Structure formats: C-alpha cells, structure tokens
Amino acid sequence: MSNECINVTYSKSVTVLHKKKKMSAYKYILEPYKGMRTRYKCPQCGGKGRFTRYINTDTGIYISEIVGRCDRENNCNYHYTPSSFFSDNPNTVTVTLRDSNTSVTPVTAQTGAAQYIPFEIMEKSVMRYERANIFPFLTRLFTAQVAAALCLNYLVGSNKYNNTVFWQVDIDGNIRQAKVMQYDPHTGRRNKERGAFFAGKKILNDDQALLQQCFFGENLLHDEENIHKPVAIVESEKTAVIASVYYKDFVWLATGGKTGCKWTEAKVCKVLAKRKVILFPDIGAFDQWKIRGELLSAVAGCKVAVSDILEKHASMRDKEKGLDLADYLLRVEDGSGLALTDEKYPVIWDYKIEQSCV
C-alpha cells in the first residue's frame, strides 16, 4: 500500500457503515429508510430523526454528516447536495481498503490550531474522583484501592454535581475534552435520558473553541510499560476502564461511541501507527467495526483485528440489548456468557484473543 493511501487527512465528517454494494443509476442517493437508525439530527435546525444523509451507492459510505436533506421542508428547508459539497471541498483523495474493493473518498480536514483545556482544571476534577458517581460502583467491584488507581490512570474525575468526567488526554499530555456522564452509583448504569455532555467549550467559555477529540485513555500509550503492548479498543469509556482490570496485557482505549472522537481520521488514529490493535465491538456492531477496522489499518498504518467473541456467545436476548464486553465480564447471575468460572476468574480468560479475531 502506498504512502499516499496511508497518510490521509480525513474531514470530521467521514463516517463508514457496512452495507451491501447496490446497483443504482446514480452514484449518490439519499439513504433508504431502514428505521430511525438511518435518520439523524439536522445540522441546521437540530430536528432529531429528520435528516437523511447521502450515500455513495458503490460503497454504502456517507459522503459527510452534513450532506443530506431535512424533511422539515417548510420550517427548515436544509438541503446540502453532493455536488455542492464536492464543489466546496475540491481537495479529495481516495483510499482503497485493505482486502476489499471498497473505496473511501475523504476531504481535507478543517484547518486551524487545536485548543486545549488548562491542566489545572482537569487536575482539580481528577483529585475529586471519589465524588464521581461511578466510583462507588468501581469500589464495589474491585475495592477502593483498585478503583482509585483506575481513576488516576484513566484520568476519571467529577464535576461539582458529582457526575463522572472522562477526560480525553492525548499522547502528548494535551487535554482535549471533558465528557460528563451520570451513573447510578450502585448499578453502574448510565442515565441514558441525561446523555453525555462535552464540557470543553463551557470550560473555556468559548462556543467557537476548536477542540479536537482523541481516544479516551490515549495518555496511557506514552507510558513506558505500555509502549510495546497491543491496543484494545472498545466503544464505552466505562468498558475500557473495567476491561483493563481483567486484561492487563493490553492498553485499553475507548472511542466514546460508534463514530466517537472520529477515530478513523488520520489526526486521531495516527497514535496507533505500527501497533497491533484489536477492536471489541458491541453486539450488533461487528460488521460495521470490521469495515472501520480496515479503514483504521489503511489510515493509521497499524495491524488491526476485530474480535467476534461477543457475537459467538450472544444469546438472542443479548443481541436485543446490544451488550458490550463489560456486560459479559461482570455477568455473574447465570452460567452463560463470559462470566466467572467455578474458580471465580472470568471465563473469557480461557479464550485466546487471536482465536476470537478475524
């Protein structure tokens, strides 16, 4: 693979979904309706589930998160066409995914110097880790001593309302973002009604601040004891923290969402260059993450495997819930899944990572 294919700068808007290649008379079409998961928040009016994106019919890939049409024709009338987008962004290159006929056409990333959050603010938050509503849950799982070490290693703190703050700190120690989430201190379950709040712009008191996210846990890549370890990537910050207790031979990172932190963009994933990476998608996301894994390998220049261990062990009920790795690691109420053996260690330890990757 040529350097031109690897050293690509992606726009913030490139999103990859795994779809079957389809024949069409048009290269770009509005994405066919397949439930509300195919409808998005309008970038202009903010209407949720009202925005349809354009896709490339050859690849099934979104052109951009902002290229599409809002169905609120009378009130919003937002319609950004592919021709207008490519006219506005003429500098494009093509990347051919490894072992695939699929191509991706990204655009040059937004220019401008990234802004960072002052260290003192993060430090104050992390020093209050015991007040974070996830801390009692971690304490009950692993003891207070282990929970404290996890919070300090992963830079997990609290805000003034005792919500959990996952600080995104890059490999050079720059503080990129602060993701605030509310957890039940007893069950460790996230309050999905409240959602997540990125506090970076509020901290800087600047709505126009250019904050570029990074992997959660990226700061650990720089530690001397982690330099030669393979990297394991999951979606949830909580899952990365918990999994790091069970699998100490990996550096556990989190994307913060299926496309969170834009983790297949060169400016984000370049920290994974020349490293062995294993992706652990949530149940139901395996096919999507396999495609993203190929893209990650091409852009970052790293060796990527995608674990199918959850897909192999998932029951129909598990699939309906969309469980992730942490759900299996912590499951003790029955004998299924990847809970504890009779000797009280996780069953997943009996599975070699290489056997669960494709």
Percent in helix: 10-25%
Strand content: 5-15%
Q: And the CATH topology of the largest domain?
A: Dna Topoisomerase Vi A Subunit, Chain: A, domain 2
Treating each run of at least 4 consecutive H or I residues as one helix, how many helices? Answer: 12
Give a count of the beta strands, DSSP E runs of length 2 or more.
Answer: 14
Any idea of the CATH class of the largest domain?
A: Alpha Beta
Low-confidence stretches: 1-24, 91-111, 334-341, 344-349, 351-356
The end-to-end span amounts to 21 Å
Mean pLDDT: 79
Shape assignment: globular
In oligomeric terms, what are we looking at?
single chain
For the sheet with most strands, the description reads: 4 strands, antiparallel
Q: How do the helices and strands follow one another from N- to C-terminus?
A: HEEEEHEEHHHEEEEHEHEHEHEHHH
| Computed structural class | alpha+beta
Strand order of the largest sheet: 1-2-3-4
Defining traits:
single chain; 358 residues; alpha+beta; Dna Topoisomerase Vi A Subunit, Chain: A, domain 2; four-stranded antiparallel β-sheet; 12 helices; 25% helix; globular; disordered N terminus; disordered C terminus
